[in-house]
């Protein structure tokens, strides 16, 4: 088949590589002058194994299943030198320590209960050390670029397209993997458009004292925070469930204040005119006192797209919807990209054999 893949994030790249490897003729369209500039460049880079989702068995299982596939596929981008800790807060947590332990046991997730000097014991009821890895975003991007160069995929940078755009008329099938921009890209395939929850999120990059090095801590399960080493830069990424979000809208497309426009998907912005960094630092220091010493290097801004109305479980499924000529990819976690690519290959190979869509909506 002649296939157009729209969106050069980790999903579009992996899907293009796998389709091309199976013998399809693939064109990859990316609107920016570079691949991997949006959510696949700006996120927390945690290679989730399932610990993070104690309220969703479905998401925990999909992480458990997908983590080895991702590690195998992108081996040189995986960083395994870090001590990963999950902490359950003493108050306001949606998962109790006992429930968290039961979750780990149910999903066969190994953990060691521990004491961590960095943590404020008055605010944290349980700390466990776990076996998890993270991803180096720079190596991942290099890996993707190299594989695309070595493949038969034709990459069109600086080329925004949509389904109703004449550019895509000649293709047997179109795969839309444009995440936060998916509804706009699906103009012309309106049955596949979905309401999503769009959040404009800030990811501060900070320097932390030596005692933080090679450590990663998440405080769960509710309005709390995390820090993780940022690739191999020696710096760290901060996360916060509340303070990371500058605005939220449920609908077809993201909306945000104009001031964020130039900062969106623009890498690390030094001295941004709007930042919640002080809130990250103050609130995080309640749980990890040393975060008070964090030095702000700058912040990254991107749009996060999640399913609406999943606050109860916090589930993050990857959803593939398909019509005769178009597949819509909605990604929950980057860790699921290899499985999604394999599923699309299976479905489209079924299409070429039977000339009809195969496989249910997931
Ligand atoms: C703050 C944050 C933290 C996260 N943390 C984690 C984590 O720790 N672990 C994890 O597994 N996942 C995490 N995620 C989720 C993960 O980042 C995403 O699921 C994944 O990166 C999305 O990849 P994608 O390829 O679908 O989308 P993107 O990377 O957004 O790629 C979409 C691409 O489409 C391009 N595009 C858009 N419109 C068009 C058009 N019309 N024509 C051509 N190109 C177009 C864009 O320029 C972009 O390059 C996080 C996400 C966010 C936002």
Characterise this structure.
With 362 residues, this protein is of the alpha/beta class. It has a single domain (2-354), classed as 3-Layer(bba) Sandwich (FAD/NAD(P)-binding domain). 23% of the residues lie in helices and 27% in strands. It is built from 7 helices and 18 strands. Helix 1 (10-21) crosses helix 7. Bound molecules: flavin-adenine dinucleotide (FAD). Flavin-adenine dinucleotide is lined by residues 6-12, 29-32, 37-40, 43-46, 48, 160-162, 177-181, 185, 201, 203, 302, 304, 331-335.
Q: What is the CATH superfamily label?
A: FAD/NAD(P)-binding domain
Radius of gyration: 20 Å
Q: How many strand units?
A: 18
Q: What is the architecture at the second tier of CATH? A: 3-Layer(bba) Sandwich
Order of helices and strands: EHEEHEEHEEEHEEHEEEEEHEEEH
Structural class: alpha/beta
CATH domain class name: Alpha Beta
Distance between the termini: 23 Å
Supply the number of helical segments: 7
Mean pLDDT: 96
Examine the coordinates and then state which fold CATH places here, giving the name of the CATH topology: FAD/NAD(P)-binding domain
Bound molecules: flavin-adenine dinucleotide
Q: Any low-confidence stretches, pLDDT <50, length ≥5?
A: 355-362
- Structurally, how many domains make up the residues? 1
Share in helix: 10-25%
Label the overall shape. Answer: globular
Question: What proportion of the residues form beta strands (DSSP E)?
Answer: 25-35%
Main pleated sheet: 9 strands, mixed
């Amino acid at each position: 088949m002649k296939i157009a893949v729209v969106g050069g994030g980790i999903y579009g790249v992996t899907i293009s590589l796998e389709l091309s490897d199976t013998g399809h003729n693939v064109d990859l369209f990316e609107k920016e002058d570079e691949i991997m500039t949006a959510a696949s460049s700006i996120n927390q880079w945690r290679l989730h194994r399932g610990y993070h989702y104690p309220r969703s068995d479905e998401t925990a299982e999909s992480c458990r299943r997908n983590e080895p596939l991702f590690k195998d596929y992108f081996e040189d981008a995986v960083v395994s030198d870090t001590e990963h800790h999950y902490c359950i807060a003493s108050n306001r947590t949606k998962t109790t320590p006992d429930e968290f332990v039961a979750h780990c046991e149910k999903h066969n997730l190994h953990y060691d209960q521990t004491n961590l000097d960095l943590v404020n014991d008055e605010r944290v009821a349980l700390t466990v050390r776990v076996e998890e890895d993270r991803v180096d975003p720079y190596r991942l991007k290099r890996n993707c670029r190299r594989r695309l160069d070595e493949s038969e995929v034709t990459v069109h940078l600086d080329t925004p397209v949509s389904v109703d755009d004449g550019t895509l008329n000649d293709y047997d099938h179109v795969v839309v993997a444009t995440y936060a921009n998916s509804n706009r890209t699906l103009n012309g395939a309106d049955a596949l458009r979905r309401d999503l929850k769009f959040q404009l999120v800030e990811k501060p990059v900070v320097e932390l004292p030596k005692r933080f090095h090679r450590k990663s801590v998440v405080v769960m399960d509710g309005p709390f925070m995390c820090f993780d080493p940022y690739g191999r830069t020696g710096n760290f990424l901060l996360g916060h469930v509340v303070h990371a979000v500058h605005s939220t809208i449920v609908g077809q497309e993201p909306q945000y204040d104009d001031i964020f426009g130039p900062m969106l998907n623009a890498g690390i912005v030094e001295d941004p005119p709007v930042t919640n960094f002080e809130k990250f630092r103050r609130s995080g220091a309640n749980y990890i006192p040393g975060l008070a010493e964090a030095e702000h290097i700058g912040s990254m801004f991107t749009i996060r797209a999640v399913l609406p109305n999943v606050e109860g479980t916090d589930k993050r499924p990857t959803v593939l919807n398909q019509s005769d000529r178009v597949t819509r990819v909605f990604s929950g976690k980057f860790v699921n990209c290899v499985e999604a690519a394999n599923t699309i290959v299976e479905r489209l190979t079924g299409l070429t054999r039977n000339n009809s869509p195969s496989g249910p909506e997931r």
